[in-house]
């Protein structure tokens, strides 16, 4: 399983659906879904990410903004995706509530989040230790389901494996997600090198492999009776 296949399955048939990509980053997923016929809108707080997304997918709409206060009317979208982004939101509960607000009744929300485990996480930790924020995102999802605000259609864990030519390529990848990480990369070079060397698995071509377990929830918001 991979993230794109999971999202396509969740929204099948996807052609013609109006979808919101919350925390869209440079627009890779929005572009992929648009390629399958979805009408995509992406939102991200980073101006550089939005500029990159507009260059990558000029047929999509991208806006700068916060997941905790989406600039869209109620029921604007057929569904929403939040991919590897909820743990970066200061208030993940508010972000889930906003995603529920802007989708139509019965619309699905796909949330894919990295877990605080796996070799990719081990290599990343000296750059940025996301243990607490990843746990907070999972807690927000679990609490929303337990409180009856969402019905969970599926809860799946799968592994994303990435390969890199070397440590520098890995560091460029993680810095692209958050340029502020370049400070830690500069200041913690020794610890980063040690963690990376311990975490990697080299393939037959000598490339460095890292694995990241991802947990995917497909949710439907439960609205109170009028």
UniProtKB/TrEMBL annotation:
One of its GO terms (molecular function) is methyltransferase activity. It comes from the Bacteria. Keywords: Methyltransferase, Transferase. InterPro entries: Methyltransf_11 (IPR013216), SAM-dependent_MTases_sf (IPR029063). SUPFAM superfamilies: S-adenosyl-L-methionine-dependent methyltransferases. Residues 20-111 form the Methyltransferase type domain. One of its GO terms (biological process) is methylation. This is 2-methoxy-6-polyprenyl-1,4-benzoquinol methylase, mitochondrial. It comes from Methylobacterium cerastii. The gene is COQ5_5.
């Amino acid at each position: 399983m991979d993230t794109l296949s999971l999202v396509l399955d969740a929204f099948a048939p996807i052609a013609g659906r109006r979808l919101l990509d919350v925390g869209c980053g440079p627009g890779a997923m929005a572009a992929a879904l648009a390629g399958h016929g979805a009408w995509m809108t992406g939102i991200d707080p980073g101006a550089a990410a939005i500029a990159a997304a507009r260059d990558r997918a000029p047929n999509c709409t991208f806006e700068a903004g916060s997941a905790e206060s989406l600039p869209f009317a109620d029921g604007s979208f057929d569904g929403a995706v939040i991919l590897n982004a909820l743990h970066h939101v200061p208030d993940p509960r508010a972000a889930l509530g906003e995603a529920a607000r802007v989708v139509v009744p019965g619309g699905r929300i796909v949330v894919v989040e990295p877990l605080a485990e796996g070799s990719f996480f081990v290599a990343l930790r000296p750059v940025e230790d996301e243990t607490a924020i990843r746990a907070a995102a999972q807690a927000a999802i679990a609490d929303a389901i337990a409180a009856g605000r969402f019905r969970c259609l599926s809860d799946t864990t799968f592994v994303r494996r990435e390969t890199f030519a070397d440590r520098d390529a890995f560091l460029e990848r993680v810095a692209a997600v958050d340029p502020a990480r370049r400070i830690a990369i500069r200041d913690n070079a020794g610890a980063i090198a040690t963690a990376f060397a311990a975490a990697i698995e080299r393939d037959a071509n000598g490339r460095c492999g890292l694995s990241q377990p991802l947990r995917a929830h497909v949710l439907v918001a439960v609205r109170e009776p009028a």
